[in-house]
Amino acid sequence: MKPKNMKTYLTKKHYLLLGMVLPLCACNVFKKNTETPQGGSTAITKESVLPNDRQNIVQPVSAVYTSADLAKGIVKGDWAIETVNGEKVVGEKAPYLKFVPQENKVYGNNGCNVINAEYQYNPADSTIQFFYLASTMRLCSKPGLTDMEINRALDAVRFYSWELNGDDYYICLYDEDHDQVMELMHQNFQFLNGTWSVKEIAGEPVNLEKMKLVIDVDEGKIHGNTGCNVLNGKLDINMDSPNSISFQAISKTLMLCPDENYETQLIVALEDATKAKALKGGKVELLNGQDKTVLVLERTSDK
């Protein structure tokens, strides 16, 4: 499927450049410019807080896309590498890039080795450049389109374009001849940010005022209260497929809880969750690998 409008490109040489090809990104590049002002954004970060002392989490500008960002062509956040030179990427690990505009840096994995570089871009003429590329030197064992192909594609990038298709954001990266070299897909879980009441566990209604979860997507953290004990853990976004997440390293305090408590069920449900989807009415659902709903959460503004 081809996008209707492509508004961003990349230009400039340097040691590292980003590039990807999407069916969505088959569009014309506008113009080239020898100047590449930085497209950095100011980041706002805030730690999650426990439910007994919580506040609304301020979403970091570096990870949240708005319609205004789309119009401005801002490049930030986490992107899965989908294709290189029109072919699907295959590697030992899911290749991805993480743009951090406040640092003017990009981090990621080329399917085998960890990579990082500096980047500059100019939304005014859709140009982007990457330089000072560094990579670990692991010997890659799994055959497929990965590693050196991705590094070479990044080095060839000069222009970019991106747009919204349904709920998904895509970036196309082009070389100096305006040929697509890479396609990126944005993993957007910002709808999970904030404080949540637990409404259902494995299809069973729950009505415990103290049972709440505080999720900070950008910090990769989850805090909360099981209704009895304080809970902490990590949130990991899986770049292999859309909407894929996991909650890991979940721990809790050891207070003795009453018999009628959903603590164990809550922890099991979190550990079983592999996907997250936004629902109407300020709710989200977490699903397991069989697409069965394990948790239903409802956004709360409780202090």
Mean pLDDT: 76
Query: What would the principal axes of the Cα set say about the shape?
Result: elongated
Strand content: 35-45%
Helix content: under 10%
Unreliably modeled segments: 1-24, 26-63
Number of helices: 3
Instruction: Output the radius of gyration.
Output: 21 Å
Give the helix/strand class: mainly beta
The major sheet is characterized as: 9 strands, antiparallel
Count of β-strands: 18
Q: Could you state the order of secondary-structure elements as H and E? A: HEEEEEEHEEEEEEEEEHEEE
C-alpha termini separation: 45 Å
Question: What labels would you give this structure?
Answer:
303 residues; mainly beta; elongated; disordered N terminus
Brief characterization of the structure:
The protein is mostly beta strands. The chain has helices at residues 67-72, 148-156, 263-272; strands spanning 77-84, 87-88, 96-100, 105-109, 114-122, 127-135, 159-165, 168-174, 180-186, 194-201, 204-205, 211-216, 221-226, 230-237, 245-252, 275-279, 283-287, 293-299.
Could you walk me through the main structural features you see in this protein, from its secondary elements to its overall organization?
- It is a single chain.
- This protein has 303 residues and is mainly beta.
- The protein is 8% helix and 38% strand.
- Strands 1, 2, 3, 4, 5, 6, 7, 8 and 9 form a nine-stranded antiparallel beta sheet that branches. Strands 10, 11, 12, 13, 14, 15, 16, 17 and 18 form a nine-stranded antiparallel beta sheet that branches.
- The longest helix has 10 residues, at 263-272.
- The N and C termini lie far apart (45 Å).
- The relative contact order is 0.18.
